[in-house]
Every structure is written in structure tokens, then in C-alpha cells.
Design a protein that fits this description.
The chain has 273 residues and is of the alpha+beta class. 16% of the residues lie in helices and 41% in strands.
Length: 273
């Protein structure tokens, strides 16, 4: 499945057939492009005692992520269309807490999903990153280049940098260095954003544990929050990612709306993996 080109292998693991000690290696093996199925990450559907279902997310490098905006829309589409949760308003348990979702249908097909992403976390300790207080428009020097960074969490950590020209900016060169910078004890996702006007942002994303991706839902949300904190964007903003557009609303809470697509269904032989 994919959300704006951010692609995932989705496996229903409600019966617990995939064991805990398999999951990290399984994600690494299955997500290898050209040598396996290939994906940005692995999504597992699990039972929940506090919500309609539980979503676990493993990045392509085998690390487990707290939350994924594009992934949770794919997760909701799968759950509805496969009768795991036959509700157009559902709650999903994640490592970042409970998320409420609203599904927009065309017949029995899920076309778009609106997600309550909650309130952004600005306290450094909770992002997590070194230092005290908030990190808003602060200096960070990488390879003698000075960047202004704004950092926050929307269930997972993000570092946002506004640039003048996104087309020529060397995302790969700086994305990895910032992701792994000593400031971020659990690494960070990195967004490079260009303001088009108060209601439109262009964003390229360097995703923690993956590299540059075509889209990132939490990254889009974080970019709008950062833009609003700096007075660059309005409450309602369309974020233009390489893979397509997401609509983000932010006042006190963040709401994200976007599509989800099923690419194909298959069977997997786990022997030898």
C-alpha cells in the first residue's frame, strides 16, 4: 500500500504468528528494494485492548517508529476494506498514543482518511533532543553551513528547515547528517520546506531510518506547525510533497487529510527469512 508514494508492506498479525524476535529482521528483509518486495516500512495490524486496532511500524532499517501519518491512512483503509474494523470513525493504538480517524468512502472503498494527529510537542526533553525549553528558529551548523532549525514531535521527532529553493537544495547531503546529529538521542526526521504562500508549502523529507521519501504525513504536519510558529503559514495549509498533496489544519490540534492506495495483495512464504 502507499500514501502519496510512501509505501508499506501491510501484514495482518492479529493471530500473533509473527513473533517479536522476528520483526526487526523481517522488516529489513522485506523492505529491501530489488532484492525483496521493497518498501519504506512494514505495518503490522495487531489486537488492541484500548482501541479498535493497534498499528506497529518498522522502518526499512528494522527500527520501530512511534507513528506514521501516511502509514496510518493505509492501515485504516486496510482495516475497513478487510472487515478488521468496519467503522468509518475508528480509533487506532500507536506507540505515540491513540489516534482517531474518519474515513471518506466511495461505495465500500476508502478514498481519503482524516487523522487527528493531536497536539505538537515542543519541549526538547520530550522530542527528544538535548537542551532545555523549545527549539524554534535556532542555529545549527553542518559542514560550515548555518541552518535555522525548528524542532518538535508529532508522536515522532522532526527537525524543520526553511529554504529558499527546494529544487536545488542538497537534501541527501545534509539530511543524513542532521538525522544522526548528537542533538537527537533517538535520531530525527528532517524536513526541508519552501513557503509558496500562506496556504501552500513545498516539503522534501529525509525520513529517519529510510532516507528521502516521496511523502511523510507526520513531516507535513510538523512543517505546518513550524511554519505557523514562525509566522510563515496560516491555519489551513496544503503541503506539496514529491508524491502528492496533504491538507493540514492546525489550531491547537493537528488534523491531516490525504489518500491511501492498495497496490497489490500477495502471499508470503516466511521460510528462510
Amino acid at each position: 500500500m502507499h500514501g502519496l508514494g510512501n509505501d508499506y508492506i501491510v501484514i495482518d498479525n492479529q493471530d500473533g504468528s509473527l513473533r517479536e524476535n522476528q520483526l526487526s529482521a523481517l522488516a529489513r528483509g522485506l523492505c529491501r528494494r530489488r532484492f525483496s518486495i521493497g518498501a519504506d516500512g512494514l505495518l503490522l495490524i495487531c489486537n488492541s485492548s484500548v482501541a479498535n486496532a493497534k498499528m506497529r511500524i518498522f522502518n526499512a532499517d528494522g527500527s520501530e517508529a512511534e507513528m506514521c501519518g501516511n502509514g496510518i491512512r493505509c492501515f485504516a483503509k486496510y482495516c475497513y476494506e478487510n472487515s478488521v474494523v468496519k467503522k468509518t470513525n475508528m480509533k487506532v493504538e500507536t506507540l505515540a498514543g491513540l489516534k482517531e480517524l474518519w474515513l471518506n468512502l466511495d461505495g465500500d472503498d476508502v478514498k481519503t482518511v482524516k487523522v487527528d494527529m493531536g497536539m505538537p510537542i515542543l519541549d526538547r526533553e520530550r522530542i527528544p533532543m538535548l537542551g532545555e525549553g523549545r527549539c524554534i528558529d535556532e542555529n545549527l551548523t553542518i559542514e560550515d553551513e548555518l541552518f535555522k532549525i525548528t524542532c518538535l514531535s508529532v508522536g515522532n521527532p522532526h527537525c524543520i528547515i526553511f529554504v529558499e529553493d527546494l529544487d536545488t537544495f542538497p537534501v541527501e547531503r545534509f539530511g543524513s547528517k542532521i538525522e544522526n546529529h548528537r542533538l537527537f538521542s533517538n535520531r530525527t526526521n528532517v524536513e526541508f520546506a519552501q513557503v509558496l504562500d500562506k496556504n501552500n508549502l513545498r516539503v522534501r523529507v529525509w525520513e529517519r531510518g529510510v532516507g528521502e521519501t516521496l511523502a511523510c504525513g507526520t513531516g507535513a504536519c510538523a512543517s505546518v506547525v513550524a511554519g505557523k510558529l514562525l509566522g510563515k503559514v496560516a491555519d489551513n495549509c496544503v503541503v506539496h510533497l514529491i508524491g502528492g498533496d496533504l491538507s493540514i489544519e492546525y489550531t491547537d490540534k493537528i488534523f491531516m487529510t490525504g489518500p491511501a492506495e492498495k497496490v497489490y495483495t500477495g502471499e508470503l512464504d516466511l521460510e528462510g527469512l
